[in-house]
Amino acid sequence: MKWFQLSLGPLQTNCYIVYNQKKNCLIFDPGEEPEKLIKFIKEKDLKPQAIMITHAHFDHIGALDDIRDEFEIPAYIHEKEAKWLIDPALNGSQLFMLGKMVRMKPADHILTSEGKMSVGDFSFNVYETPGHSPGSVSFYFEDAGFVVSGDALFYGSIGRTDLPGGNHEQLLKSIHNKLLTLPEETIILPGHGPETAVGSEMDSNPYLHGF
């Protein structure tokens, strides 16, 4: 199993396309530029099976409906942010997008708990990792050795917690109790910036020391 990373939109939000040998794929956080994303998927001859949302801030969901409609696939989101898809005040677009309100259709499937999950050909673990936002989740592919962490943990940094529903202490607990318990060689695929690894962040991330 492998992945492609596309940085989309003015905030350069990372969208990940996780695919297998059959070219079936899952799309994580289609944040912006749907035409670019659709073109990429078709050029690579990939077959999308679902859209997975790590959290529902506007820069992670802006292309959701275009991608969902183009490939006729379902979208998954945590129950604590299900309403954020349709509410610009909750997803942040009302505050940050200068008049461009982001409103998406409701998700097709609601995540209500942690644990093992299968979607199409893909099996993975869902971890609740709130703090950046109350419904943030991370998707861990144990056999392939990587985790899609949204805006919880970055290379040398952590997610901001000054937005509605953010909680700094809760975010640190999520990182320490969930993400840092994964094997140190696990690749972290964050919502912004370059990929990193669990061991690297344990050793050098200044936000994680002294917690």
From TrEMBL:
Alphabetical UniProt keywords: Hydrolase, Metal-binding, Zinc
Alphabetical list of Gene3D superfamilies matching this protein: Ribonuclease Z/Hydroxyacylglutathione hydrolase-like (3.60.15.10)
GO function term, MF aspect, one: metal ion binding
SMART domains assigned: Lactamase_B
The organism's place on the tree of life at top rank: Bacteria
InterPro entries in the record: MBL_Glyoxalase_II, Metallo-B-lactamas, RibonucZ/Hydroxyglut_hydro
Cofactor dependency: Zn(2+)
Residue intervals of the Metallo-beta-lactamase domain: 12-192
Pfam families hit by this protein: Lactamase_B (PF00753)
Name by which UniProt lists this protein: Metallo-beta-lactamase domain-containing protein
Gene: yqgX
